[in-house]
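Protocol step 4 of 6: record predicted structures for both targets in the notebook before any analysis. Target 1:
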Amino acid sequence: MNLKNRIFTILTIISLFSLLLSCSKSSDPVPEVDRTGNYFGSLSVYLDGKFVSTTNNAQLSIVGTNKKGEVSILTAVSVTLKATISGNTITIPRTVTSQVSQISMTEYGGGTFNGTTLTIEINQELQPTGSPATRLRYSFVGKK
């Protein structure tokens, strides 16, 4: 191989190596979106699967906790709920949130974020001992 070909080969390798390095991923972390805050919108109420009413000036608040990914949800229609957020999804695990005498209340649900809009459903089951549960569902759509 003559000198001209060697120089060309070395320059080609250096160029390819430089191109490879310039295309590598950035080490800067992608900033997380802050989902906490107050959301204002409409809240529809369903009792045992049947529509009851809609309120157009409802508020739902999402408050951060000291655990990463966990939040508290505050509404006028539920006990304080714990939830987790992963990406654009919020999940409320099935939890007995109160128990008084012979009645317990279980809450659960979930929803999604789309930009500044939150769509979420909160389910409540009121279970008197020895009786069928009464089921309430709250559908909320609001903007931050």
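Target 2:
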Amino acid sequence: MKKARIAWAIIFAMVSLWRTSEAGGDKGTLGVGFRAGITQFESDIQNPALGPLVYGHVKFNPNAFLSIGTEFGWGELKDKADKSFKTAIMPFELDLTFNFLPLGKVNPYVLIGGGGVYWNSTRNGLRIIDKTTSKTQEGIDSFVKTGGGLEFILNQKRNLTLSIGLTYRYSFSDMLDQDYSGDETDQVIDIYGGLTYYFKTSTKGDMDSDGVPDLLDLDLRTPEDADGYLDHDGKPDLQEGDRLARMMDMKADSADQGEDKDPPYVVHHPVRIAEEGRDINLTVNVIENKEVRVVAALYRTKGEKSWQVRTLNSFGSTIYQGKIPGIYVKPPGVEYAVVAVDEAVSGIGYSGLPKRPNVIEVIAKPKQWRILSATTAILSWGAAGYLIYRKQK
């Protein structure tokens, strides 16, 4: 019981810290997915066999660093020495998942949680009956759990992920393995892989969910095409292949005539979200038939009046890169534009304008969340490791 109280105290503390956090939880997303893998006893059984497991889960993300989820599924626990014996388990649990790199393509995470489990022990497919009580060996007990893994982003919209990981469950029952000889209750270890699909639960301030705020969006009902050309205004343009072909044809014609009447074309995929205090990397492709004079970024913290200007450096014939310094990356967000001017000063190419800039949402307090995540991992994984490697008496 002492272990149970400690585990639930940790879970309660995590929930309390989330409730008092100032990280923006009003733009949460909902995730639905499944996991499949293998599971085995960590119990009195000396040679546990691997069994199958399948889980479904639903996750709500109040902010980028935290997910609150529910998991439910089925698994089979087996014994190598007694192949006729197996225990089916059906957990139904709540959990908290802490993300270390929520904006990366690969996100390490740690989870803690707990809940109930229905279990049913059989031998040769028949339910085991206790001879003294004449009752079948089944029941509802409880688990606490911890685990972790890696989440891989599979698409550009970042709404489909592949996760692989490991989960350790501590049961408060010593009946799952039908062996009561040890001084510890039964434990279960899972290794899994699975897919999760995320979708937005709120379109407040961004009706078409294209990352362009409604106040700056010229087409509230149709999402921006996200092809890198004039993606700041929320209004879809020509298809990328057709547009780039026209750009190159126009540049070729003006080059043949020895003239440079057209401004450079800027192709840039706007940054939509960033962490507080971290530099924001910008990459821009500039299409120009002659010489580019300058490519620069204008930026400011949202709400400020003056703009900062930084020149982007050339890498190759069309690629320009630069950074927005982290000191300007703070709530309530960042506004920026990228402009390019050629030697003929025939006009400007741009992604965003001072009156209609690209807007970046800023996630607050990333360091505090990572400290919380690391502390959770050290405490929960440390306790799990101790229980796994401890020899039962």
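Step 5 preliminary note on target 2. Residues 74 and 90 are 4 Å apart (CA to CA). The longest helix spans residues 366-389.
Proceed to step 6 after PI sign-off.
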